[in-house]
Design the sequence.
């Protein structure tokens, strides 16, 4: 059950990650074309604005993938010095619980932003006059999906730890010291 | 509030709660205990305005550029070309490690990616030519740290964003210190190998014709660097736009040397999303903490605290430097940056120091954090590229380079022009 849940989550998030990656690449292409156009005196106008929306939506949806790849940075100095796998699993559970709760609060607090936009049918104060709902709804949905992924991962982690399968729980909610950072 | 934040920060971090989440939690705590009005009400619009920012899209672009470049095989060509140019120095091939890392830093915004790239191509040579693994691997770990100093640099983008400092100025300021550090690494290697030749390897000279031919392999990277940095300073493009030029250049290099296919691009895109998400969670968390701290009046409290200490600006700065060195033993680059910026940068600016200059000083300090044990990401990265041996060897090998970095810190404090000369001259 726990394994199945985790593998489904990871498959969905991988697909999402590819979609977000393609979104970034397309945006890079758009920016590049705009630079070239500017050299000959033309321009799309508004690539900055579009880049911003791409960043907000891409970031929001990429978060859950980061979680399923264990790439959100944790300082595991103390964790590594804990010898017993059981106690390490407790730290991992605490960690994913803190993440799930915090991300849920963030997602909840993001809703008023979208709500106001919907109520006033706000448009961006720019030449493009983008209807903000169009970009804020997908952004908000990304944070909600991050929270959902986090809680499901937490549940899977609890199940694994209760069964005493610490190797598997380590793979699902552990920490990689060699995780890549900038 | 200052002690609440410091104790909370260290306590929650050591419980291994994700760094980005710790920053949010502290923000909630400040809101709860130190603010007269509810700050979390603004959380949603905080998150929106932080992530909906065109300047930050340079981050996924520069990450993507690096992800593509490491998959092109250009690293191996660069390495063998630089071998012909620098291996006559005492220490032999160890110099090629530093030089290749420097070269890659000029197109990569990340230190770990730089170290990983160089380690993959260099480590097999160490075994083949019978090099002592200590200095050889230490040089890769240290050389790799230049990735965040020599522009483009993802860390400088984050610093610029969180402190409202000009990113082009920061890039320009990082160039000279980056080159000086690279030269210092070469000098340190030569000195160590003159004292104890066993730590290095055979000095080799190549026919001049081969050296010239090698230049052809260096051209793609040089062109790419010039395109990125040139377009920023010619005023044709913002750093974000230059990053998209870089992505196109990396794709062109991939097409030129083979290896451009859908699978490779797919992997590069997935890697980009993973790293971007990781960076953005801590950046958004830090923005929120920043916001709560300044709304709750941290700056007054800091001023009071500093006046109470009775230190002059230089003494305070030295305390800050010492703090970074100690924290750097345990905490990694980006985390160390974002958790300290909200507290340290206001202090430093109120002491009258230049924010661009301090950004560069901070980069040297967090570069040091990358190669100081017990937690030093570049040490781990280089170790994972080795076929065996203990990580203690990599740690030992990195020590001479840590000394070079300390010298750089002293140089930056004594002579701020090292960082500020170029931004001033171009202003």
Sequence:
């Amino acid at each position: 059950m726990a394994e199945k849940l985790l593998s489904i989550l990871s498959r969905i998030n991988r697909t999402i990650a590819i979609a977000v990656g393609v979104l970034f690449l397309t945006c890079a292409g758009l920016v590049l074309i705009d630079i070239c156009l500017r050299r000959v005196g033309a321009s799309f106008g508004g690539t900055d604005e579009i880049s911003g929306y791409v960043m907000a939506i891409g970031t929001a949806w990429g978060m859950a993938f980061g979680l399923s790849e264990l790439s959100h940075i944790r300082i595991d100095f103390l964790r590594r010095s804990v010898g017993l796998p059981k106690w390490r699993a407790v730290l991992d559970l605490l960690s994913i619980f803190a993440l799930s709760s915090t991300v849920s609060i963030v997602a909840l607090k993001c809703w008023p932003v979208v709500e106001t936009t919907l109520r006033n049918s706000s448009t961006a104060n720019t030449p493009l006059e983008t209807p903000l709902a169009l970009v804020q709804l997908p952004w908000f949905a990304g944070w909600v999906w991050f929270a959902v992924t986090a809680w499901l991962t937490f549940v899977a982690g609890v199940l694994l730890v209760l069964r005493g399968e610490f190797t598997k729980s380590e793979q699902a909610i552990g920490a990689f010291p060699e995780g890549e950072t900038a | 509030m200052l002690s609440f934040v410091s104790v909370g920060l260290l306590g929650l971090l050591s419980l291994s709660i994700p760094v980005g989440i710790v920053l949010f939690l502290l923000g909630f705590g400040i809101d709860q205990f130190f603010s007269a009005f509810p700050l979390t009400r603004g959380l949603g619009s905080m998150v929106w305005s932080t992530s909906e920012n065109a300047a930050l899209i340079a981050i996924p672009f520069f990450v993507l550029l690096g992800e593509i470049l490491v998959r092109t095989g250009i690293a191996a060509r660069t390495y063998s070309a630089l071998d012909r140019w620098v291996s006559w120095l005492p220490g032999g091939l160890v110099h090629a490690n530093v030089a290749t890392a420097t070269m890659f830093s000029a197109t990569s915004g990340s230190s770990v990616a730089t170290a990983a790239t160089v380690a993959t191509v260099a480590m097999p040579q160490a075994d083949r030519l019978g090099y002592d693994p200590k200095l050889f691997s230490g040089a890769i770990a240290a050389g790799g740290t230049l990735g965040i100093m020599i522009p483009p640099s993802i860390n400088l983008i984050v610093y610029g964003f969180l402190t409202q400092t000009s990113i082009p100025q920061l890039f320009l300021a990082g160039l000279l210190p980056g080159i000086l550090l690279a030269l210092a690494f070469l000098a340190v290697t030569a000195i160590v190998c003159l004292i104890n030749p066993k730590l290095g390897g055979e000095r080799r000279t190549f026919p001049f014709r081969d050296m010239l031919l090698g230049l052809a392999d260096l051209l793609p990277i040089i062109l790419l660097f010039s395109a990125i940095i040139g377009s920023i300073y010619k005023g044709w493009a913002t750093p974000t736009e230059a990053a998209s030029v870089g992505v196109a250049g990396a794709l062109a290099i991939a097409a030129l040397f083979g290896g451009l296919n859908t699978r490779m691009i797919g992997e590069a895109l997935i890697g980009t999303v993973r790293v971007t998400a990781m960076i953005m969670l801590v950046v958004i968390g830090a923005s929120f903490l920043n916001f709560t701290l300044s709304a709750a009046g941290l700056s007054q409290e800091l001023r009071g605290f500093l006046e109470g200490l009775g230190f002059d600006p230089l003494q305070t700065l030295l305390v800050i430097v010492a703090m970074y060195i100690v924290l750097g033993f345990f905490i990694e680059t980006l985390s160390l940056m974002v958790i300290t910026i909200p507290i340290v940068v206001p202090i430093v600016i109120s002491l009258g120091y230049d924010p661009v200059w301090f950004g560069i000083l901070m980069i040297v300090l967090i570069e040091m954090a990358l190669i100081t044990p017990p937690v030093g990401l570049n040490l781990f990265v280089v170790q994972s590229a080795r076929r065996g041996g203990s990580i203690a060897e990599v740690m030992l090998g990195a020590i001479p380079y840590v000394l070079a970095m300390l010298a750089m810190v002293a140089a930056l404090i004594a002579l701020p022009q090292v960082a500020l000369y170029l931004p001033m001259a171009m202003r």
Remarks:
- Chain B has a mean pLDDT of 91.
- Chain B has 20 helices and no strands.
